[in-house]
Amino acid sequence: MSYSIDFRKRAIDFVIEEKNSMRSASKIFDIQYNTMKEWVKRFKETGEFSPKPILGKQPTKINLATLV
After folding, report:
1. pTM
2. For residue 1, what pLDDT is reported?
3. Structural domains of the chain in order of their starting residue, each with its CATH number
4. Residue 6 pLDDT more than 90?
């Protein structure tokens, strides 16, 4: 499941700025504890709220001529 950047920011701020525990944040925001832990870890390491990019094969471009 993908969460919005705003939702992630509110959850991370709840932990870091308001000095609440990750466990209480995960219960309040109704997300898994490990998800909360990964978000906080990523934010502390990179300063990013956005999800990690998905690695792997790049999507192929659709040839518009074949769609007609």
Report:
1. 0.73
2. 63
3. 5-46 (1.10.10)
4. yes
